[in-house]
Amino acid sequence: MKSMSRTSWITLAGMAALLILPPLFLWSGNEFYLQLATRLVILAIAAVSLNLVLGYGGLVSFGHAAYIGIGAYAVGIPAYHETYGGFDSIASYDGLFHVALAVGISALFALVTGAISLRTKGVYFIMITMAFGQMAYYLFFSINEYGGDDGLVIDVRSEVPGLNLDNPLQLYLLSYVALVAAMLIVRTIINSRFGMVIKGAKGNNDRLVGLGYNTYLYRLAAYVISGAMAGFAGALLGNFTTFISPEMMGWTRSGELMFMVILGGAATTFGPVLGAVIFILLEEILSSYTIFWQLPFGLILIGVVLFARGGLMGFLTTKWRKP
Amino acid sequence: MKRLLISAAIAALITAPAFAAEVKIGFVTTLTTGAAVIGKDIQKAVNLAVEQMGGKMGPLDINLIYADDGFKPETGKQATDKLVKQDKVDFVAGYIWSNVLLASRKSVLDAGKFLITANAGPGPIAGKLCNKNLFSSSWQNDETPMAMGEVLNQNGVKSLYIIAPNYAAGKGMVAGVKRTFKGEIKGTDMTTWPTQLDFSAELAKAKASGADGLFVFYPGKAGGAFMKQYQQAGLKDSLPLYTVFTVDALSLPKFQAANFTDVLGSQFTQQWDPTLDNPQNKRFVSEFRAKYGSYPSFYAAQAYDAMFLIRSAVEAVNGDLTNMDGMRTAMESANYPSVRGKYTYGNNHMPIQNYYLRQVVKDSDGNWTTKVVKTVFKNHQDSYAKDCSL
Amino acid sequence: MDYTLLFVQTLNGLQLGLLLFLVASGLTLVFGILNFVNLAHGSIYMIGAFIGASLTLWLGNFLIAVVIALPIIGLVGYAIEKFVARRLYEKDHLDHVLGTFGLILVLDTLAHLIWGPEGISVPLPGWLDGQVELFAGVVVPTYRLLIITAGLSVAGGLVWLVNYTRLGMLIRAGASNRTMVSALGIDIQLLFALVFALGAMLAGLAGMLITPITEASIGMGGQIIITAFVVIIIGGIGSMKGAFIAAILVGMIDTLGRAYLADIFALVMSPSAAETSAPSVSSMLIYILMAAILAVRPQGLFPPKARP
After folding, report:
1. What pLDDT is recorded for position C182?
2. CATH 3.40.50.2300 domain range(s) in chain B
């Protein structure tokens, strides 16, 4: 129980720091660091959603960047048509509509691809999810109307009642609240009976099937929830960068999301957030020293896989636990 | 993690705004991936320019910050954001790739800074997206292939097959050559960019089409790959090749090392050539060669010009960087020594300049380089200028 | 229909397929026997290309350079196995993916540091640089025929190695029963290292063979590795026969897609829309194929029979 409370303490302290520090950056005239924090928090939402299937469910999805891309295009495409005309049925600046579209299409994509992917196991699952991610990548790549691989500039951010997303602080706080909500959703799911089945199927799928659970359907539901949440993160990311390109959906981006989860600690509430924080900071710090930053970055990645079982959360909680 | 964040916060709080007498120039280019070879050449030219200026523009010290776009629009935009928001630069220059420029332009222009593109020239920025603070030291994408289309007409080429990559600049190049070429287009292949480097299927189609000539646009390493496969397919006599931005001073030494003689004599169009006869160009080419041992590429020439264009603006206002209008007026007059010779700016801040036909030859030392064959267009203006509201 | 063109395009597809097979065979060998997912296989392909290209410029002869470069890339593979891969075998596939993802970053940056960003072009010997007229009207580059020949020879060599040699027997035994192989007094760690080195040589050979067509360049591995994975997934991971058939299939679909998809699309849409959408859809074709095959056969076309 002692390590439990450590975990909670780290989680609360970390979340408090994320709430307090970024506004300070803005007020001290360092808007760039607020932007960095915004990107970080949005990617953390995606990592939290990936953690639901990867960490708790043991389903290694290598295509989660696709949902971020779908979510971002769900902001960009309606805004594009509202500005330049055409496709009236979806043309809109309305943020709620964007989110509904982002979550809806992502869930649908997760449902269809999940239904096929979940029939496979192990490395086949890793690779087929990657293949679906690449399909989404090439799909947007091929649509000239939305810029193809040049990407799409979002001229106008989503209009959300009571908020102005052009204000960087408001956008940050919205992302922060969304992150807290995502963490609570995943936590609630995991502690429910549904979550027990998901976790149980990771350990011993056959036993649960023997007990009469249709684990395929449970997993599919978790996969859809995870995809929808990542799609929501994508809608935020589109509003943040005001630019989307298929590049955001490439397999290396999916790999980075996986790394965030593993780095911070899979199957923990705060791990993916911590992983995203460290990932973005490492990238930022290393790349400011050398254009060859990927060399130390890669070595750290290998080191984490080889030596840091349980990620940083595991490291922090076990180290502090009294023998 | 927390300590890191806290120290970052403290560092952020105590960083005082810089008010040293300097002009900050952010230069966005490609420093990683295989395309870094272009970025490296650009860096050489920019460093040479700064050296020749004695590190000063008017009364101000030059503070030059390079940023890597990683050959990706999103990374380029992030790098641009950092230059504008964190480094608080006065000018953002560079941009090799049209898609990176399109993604990044808003970050610079919304912050009210000057944006100098030293290569990329997609149609929209010359037309409906033109901006009072956006200048080009290069060209609009369509113009160079338009010049090539004119060359094809002059050479009596009756039909053409086109192969180009499927991205903004590729589409612009195809649109450009189609605009001036009067003969028949037998077919157009747009290939996946930047991953596709094997053009066997496209070359076989081009050959089967029976066209008189083949027009291609492949910048960077794809250009080298294309030229080799063209030679291996043995099409030199049956399907003469006409290129833009495919053979350059970066690929020629590699071709020479590989003794790849089909390239000798090949022709392409451009707004600049190392042999252009003006004092600034002679100085640039000779000092570049003395310092780095190779001919500068057109990328290098344009980046070099961008630095002198910026200097002309800073000098015109005597270092008062708050005088945006003064600097803008100065740049609009293009009153600086350009390596391409004197040119003017159109309403959309794109150069109105000459385009030449260049040919690959051996210089007196046996190095492979280029010379000017003839002038194709005199004082040519791009076709998007009329859409620009400036 | 222009049958000459179709024939040439089929040859192009075959050549691409065989090149893919060289990469995929190493991947499937390593996966089938060591149960190891190696994303960095593409980086080995890139390093092979660079070593081959450097040696070609140094020695002045492409073929001699390839012969010398092969054992070198084998050693590189051996070193990667010894220092990184070996420590990952016991972990799960997720760790393999992440660890080798890190390895990609390291190897690509190292290549940038060693060879610079320029990339290297290599010349071919004169007799390889020309064209061959197979029969009237069908002229193909000689070098492409060499790739086809090399690919088929390697495929034959692998069949012989796996089915008729002692090493092959051990490899097959190692895949299905590790303890038994160890009990026979065979150093299984050495066996695994040799398999890894063999895989590296196959990938390196592919990299060397592609260099005269394109060039050795940073990041070339990231493009081929995903396609190679698609190949072995379609074929059934661990199956050499599956890798071969799937590689040819993927090579054909990719090439013929590039060659004919625009014409097919032009039947139902405007020519300019067909021109621009066809290349992207043809790059999607292989993923569609993979998804379709896995939907019907979740273990690929030729799933290996026994797994440890």
Report:
1. 72
2. 2-139+278-352, 143-270
| Sign of the alpha-carbon torsion through B161, B162, B163, B166 | negative
CATH code at position A294? 1.10.3470
Burial class of residue A169 (count of CB atoms within 10 Å of its CB; 0-12, 13-18, 19+): middle
Q: Which ipTM score applies to this complex?
A: 0.89
Query: Taking CA atoms, what residue in B is nearest to C141?
Result: B233
Does residue B4 carry a pLDDT above 70? no
pLDDT > 70: percent of chain B: 95
pLDDT value of residue B25: 97
Could you tell me the residue ranges of all domains in chain C?
10-218
Close Cβ partners of C214 (under 8 Å, ≥ 6 residues apart): B197, B198, B221, B224, B225, B228, C220
Contact B221 C214 (CB under 8 A): yes
What is residue C307's three-state secondary structure? coil
C-alpha pair distances (Å), B203 with each of B18, C110, C139, C143: 56, 34, 12, 15
Q: Is A150 on the interface with B (CB under 8 A)?
A: yes
| Cα C103 from Cα C84, distance rounded (Å) | 9
CA-closest candidate to residue B215, choices B178, B182, B252, B179: B178
Query: Which residues from A are below 8 Å from B73, CB to CB?
Result: 150-151, 243, 245, 247
Burial class of residue C173, CB neighbours in 10 A (0-12, 13-18, 19+) = middle
Average the pLDDT over C119-125 and give the result.
88
Task: Summarize the confidence of residues B150-161 as an average pLDDT.
Answer: 95
Q: What's domain B2-139+278-352's superfamily in CATH?
A: Response regulator (3.40.50.2300)
d(CA A291, CA A289): 7
C119 pLDDT tier (thresholds 50, 70, 90) = confident
Contact B1 A278 (CB under 8 A): yes
Output the pLDDT for position C175.
64
- The whole model's pTM is what? 0.90
Q: What is the CA radius of gyration of chain A?
A: 19
| Coil, helix or strand at residue B301 | helix
What residues in C contact B259, CB-CB < 8 Å? 123
CA distance C259 to chain B (A): 6
Sole residue written with tokens 């400011």:
A288
Domain that holds residue A185: 2-320
**Number of C-beta neighbours around residue C166 at 10 A:** 8
CB contact under 8 A, B103 and A24: no
Interface contact B167-A150, CB threshold 8 A: yes
Token code pair at residue B119? 């290569």
* Residues of chain C contacting residue A262, judged by C-beta atoms under 8 Å apart: 94-95, 98
Q: Which of A45-54, A159-168, A260-269 reaches the highest mean pLDDT?
A: A45-54
Q: Which residue has the higher pLDDT, B14 or B216?
A: B216
pLDDT at position C162: 83
Q: Which CATH number fits domain B143-270: 3.10.420.10, 3.40.50.720, 3.40.50.970, 3.40.50.2300?
A: 3.40.50.2300
pLDDT, tens digit, 9 for 90 and up, residues C53-81: 999 999 999 999 999 999 999 999 999 99
A243 in contact with B at a CB cutoff of 8 Å? yes
Of A82-86, B29-33, C109-113, C146-150, give the lowest mean pLDDT range.
Answer: A82-86
The total number of structural domains in chain A stands at 1
pLDDT of residue C177: 67
Å between B345 CA and nearest CA of chain C: 33
Confidence of residue C184 (pLDDT cuts 50, 70, 90): confident
User: For position A1, what pLDDT does the model report?
Assistant: 45
B29 contacts on A by Cβ (under 8 Å): none
Locate A263 and state its tokens.
């780095």
Rounded-to-integer distance, Cα B141 and Cα A109, Å: 38
